Amino acid sequence: MPLLGEHRNLIAVAYLAGVLHQLLLIASAGVGAYVVARAAAGASPGQLTGWLVLLGCLIVPLVVMNVADNTFAHVAAFRALADIRAKVFTAFERLSPGYMVERRSGDLGAAAVSDVEEIEIFFAHTLSPLAVASTVPVATTVVLASFHWSLACALLPVLLLLASVPAWLRHRAELHGRELRDSLGRMSADSTDTFQGLRELVNFGAHSQRLGLLRQQSVRLAKAKTAHGRRGGIEYAATDTIALVGILVVLVLGARLVVAGELDRSVYPVAVVLAAMAMAPVLKVTEVARELSVVASAAERINVLLDEPAPVSDLVTRPPAGSIEPHVQFDGVTFAYRSDLSPAVRDVSFEIHPGETVALVGHSGAGKSTCANLLLRFWDVTAGSVTVGGHDVRDFPQEDLRQLMTLVPQNTFLFNTTIRDNIRLGRADASDEEVEAAARDAQAHEFISGLPDGYDTVAGELGALMSGGQRQRIAIARALLKDAPILVMDEAVSNLDAASEHAVARAMEEARHGRTTLVIAHRLSTIRTADRIVVISEGRVAESGTHEELLAAGGAYVELLASQLDGILDPDSRTASRSGH
């Protein structure tokens, strides 16, 4: 119900319209039954004219209330779904990237789409009918009591028994609903993984193995649906049986009352019709209730997502006053991704002066990317501080902090839209001329112009139509367009060939000009261009200095370069020894 938000008034209107519609429907059925009974008893047309006029007058409001009930309920539902989906996407943004790295994108997509859609059943098809089912049968029972008290006494326990059916198997329904939503989420996640990894599956001939996994998930989903359907079948049988028994009880009891002279013969059909109509709203609710276990499971998944605490949260509402100097400093920084894990970095201290380029180097897993993540405040430090312009990054609202920085990641994500729009991600209001200027500085204009539609060429899903070097230059163009004073480049050339690396290196040089830059790199060609190098080893700063200073020191930096050169030279050395050179 809290997810309904500000749309409760629309649901209230739908409820009133639903009650009026049901009452008008019962009145129409009752009047119709009474007319038939009087006609069968030999009443003249003149005696029935008033009743027939009344029946005709009920048609228009009956239709209007039916339309109002369905319209307002669905409008409220669809507006609420739009609000919920916006909250889900806001939660994704709030929780990124810490929460996302531990979840599968397909499962998160299911939460944003199918889980939200499931809630429509509750808002549009449950709330109003539930309110109608809790009021209309009471009114109908009162009318039956006015005919004869025993009719109401006979119908009341049947209505209560009918309403209790969903509770009989409630625990099993909750298990089935949770299993069904979980199976759908896993199926969605595995399918997404399969679609995104088709090239690798074909390359390694593993498509049969992957297909087997999808079959297993499909079987699991089928079992969950079968169990859900089997339980629903039991509930269908129970509700139909109870409803038929209720009508039969009123039918038999009414007949006995007519024979005994305690009930008017012309009222007898009306009593039977009213009994059937009294059970109709309850039957509708019990029918919808069979799906509420799935709805409840979907709502639970959404609420867990919305209630998940963010890895970082704003501690202030305004940034520090005055201009912010792009001076970055790490002071005794220690950080662990989880309390049960060892720290990824320990007591790390270094600084980057305005306009300076510092390269973080070290073996994989040394903690380089962790330092970048802490600067961008994707996570908060466990101890120590990261400052920008002398202010702790936690003293900035996240939105203001991100305006000071831009990231060029190792694996650039391109959206399945035009290259122009992908570059404009850096600044949404940029003109076409500014986009092209950024692309020129990023050494990307030439290859973009050679594409079939130039800047209007669609990049393909995940940028599949672009090479690695092209994607990286587009990422640098984004960064240039954003024009943030602090630039973070995370392994921007690590996966490129020599030609692409040269083009990206030129683009990086342009991007770094006049900016405070943190470069995470392995390649010597990138490292040597930095003003200063900080060597990270096992989460600590091993040494720092210029390329020449560190070479002369003969410490961790030289060992790192030697290990990289060994990997390159050893195969050649072995080849040379075999050839006798």
What topology emerges from the helices and strands here?
Blueprint: H1 8-40, H2 45-95, H3 105-125, H4 127-147, H5 149-168, H6 170-196, H7 198-203, H8 207-259, H9 268-289, H10 292-307, E1 328-335, E2 345-352, E3 357-361, H11 368-375, E4 383-388, E5 391-392, H12 398-403, E6 405-408, H13 419-423, H14 432-441, H15 445-449, H16 468-482, E7 486-490, H17 498-512, E8 516-520, H18 524-527, E9 532-537, E10 540-545, H19 547-553, H20 556-578
Parallel strand pairs: 3-8, 3-9, 6-7, 7-8
Antiparallel strand pairs: 1-2, 1-4, 4-5, 9-10
What does this structure look like?
This protein is α/β, with parallel strands linked by helices and 581 residues long. The protein has three domains: 306 residues, ABC transporter transmembrane region fold, CATH 1.20.1560.10; 142 residues, P-loop containing nucleotide triphosphate hydrolases (Rossmann fold, 3-Layer(aba) Sandwich), CATH 3.40.50.300; 73 residues, P-loop containing nucleotide triphosphate hydrolases (Rossmann fold, 3-Layer(aba) Sandwich). The strands form two sheets. Strands 6-7-8-3-9-10 form a six-stranded mixed beta sheet, with helices on both faces. Strands 2-1-4-5 form a four-stranded antiparallel beta sheet, covered by helices on one side. Helix 17 links the parallel strand 7 and strand 8. Helix 1 packs antiparallel against helix 2, helix 1 packs parallel to helix 4 and helix 5 packs antiparallel against helix 8.
